[in-house]
UniProtKB/TrEMBL annotation:
<protein>
    <recommendedName>
        <fullName>Probable U3 small nucleolar RNA-associated protein 11</fullName>
    </recommendedName>
</protein>
<feature type="region of interest" description="Disordered">
    <location>
        <begin position="1"/>
        <end position="25"/>
    </location>
</feature>
<dbReference type="GO" id="GO:0032040">
    <property type="term" value="C:small-subunit processome"/>
</dbReference>
<dbReference type="GO" id="GO:0006364">
    <property type="term" value="P:rRNA processing"/>
</dbReference>
<keyword id="KW-0539">Nucleus</keyword>
<keyword id="KW-0698">rRNA processing</keyword>
<dbReference type="Pfam" id="PF03998">
    <property type="entry name" value="Utp11"/>
</dbReference>
<dbReference type="InterPro" id="IPR007144">
    <property type="entry name" value="SSU_processome_Utp11"/>
</dbReference>
<feature type="compositionally biased region" description="Basic residues">
    <location>
        <begin position="7"/>
        <end position="17"/>
    </location>
</feature>
<comment type="similarity">
    <text>Belongs to the UTP11 family.</text>
</comment>
Length: 253
């Protein structure tokens, strides 16, 4: 083939043009054709593999295998529907169950309240660290009295016992008899830790008693909702309280 013929054939060829970029992808710039083809091919083969796996699973399935939808489903007018289970509990039975639940929760709550009172009686509301949670204020008349104020003299005790908020004997008592109770710092630290543990237990029991009270209220609310009287919800249920409903007034005979 001569050079002139090749030149004429090349002139007759149509110029190759790149396919137009989709409008949604213009912000991403021009993409290479080879890379775009690989992505589409990978997605196509992934879908074909998934379809083949589903077909194999359907072929391997035993048609006589039992599953619960065999007895819970039926076909009506060519539509596959699930049978709704019938309510086998009457409203009266449900109310009785709610009553038993409330009695059980109230029994547990009362037992917890008794334990709380017993713990409070043992601890005498003393702070675990040996000092009161609040502040003990002393009132004086002048600033000079503030500068010269001696807390040990004011409390009529020795300076070593000032930090105690309980079992703080006066000087007259100390002259008659010795200090009762442990005075060793290590022993006092151990007792303080024990009191702290007791207060932590008391706090947990108080929180548990409050939670049981909230549960009892919620159960009672659900029991009241079984009544067919018209009602309107006033407040939604929260973690700290039940929902509040307003019932239509009905005159009783």
């Amino acid at each position: 083939m001569s050079a002139a013929f090749r030149k004429a054939a090349k002139a007759r060829q149509r110029p190759h043009r790149e396919r137009a970029q989709p409008a949604a992808r213009t912000k991403l710039g021009l993409l290479e054709k080879k890379k775009d083809y690989r992505l589409r091919a990978h997605d196509y083969h992934k879908k074909q593999n998934a379809l083949r796996a589903l077909q194999k699973k359907a072929l391997d399935k035993n048609p006589d295998e039992f599953y619960f939808k065999m007895i819970r489903a039926e076909v009506k007018d060519g539509v596959h529907v699930i049978k709704q289970p019938k309510d086998e509990i009457t409203p009266e039975q449900m109310k009785l169950m709610r009553t038993q639940d409330i009695k059980y929760v109230e029994m547990k709550r009362v037992a917890e309240a008794k334990k709380i009172e017993r713990l409070k009686a043992e601890l005498h509301l003393l702070d675990a660290a040996g000092s009161a949670a609040g502040r003990h204020l002393f009132f004086v008349d002048t600033e000079r009295e503030v500068r010269e104020f001696d807390i040990a003299a004011h409390l009529d005790t020795v300076p070593e016992l000032v930090d105690r908020v309980y079992n703080r004997p006066s000087i007259a008592t100390l002259q008659r008899e010795a200090v009762k109770g442990p005075t060793d710092p290590a022993h006092l630290k151990k007792l303080a830790q024990q009191r702290k543990n007791q207060y932590d237990l008391l706090r947990q029991r108080i929180e548990r008693e409050k939670a049981m009270f909230v549960i009892s209220q919620k159960i009672q609310t659900r029991k009241d909702l079984l009544d067919k009287t018209h009602k309107v919800k006033v407040k939604k249920e929260t973690t700290t309280g039940p929902a509040i409903y307003k019932f239509k007034f009905q005159r009783k005979r």
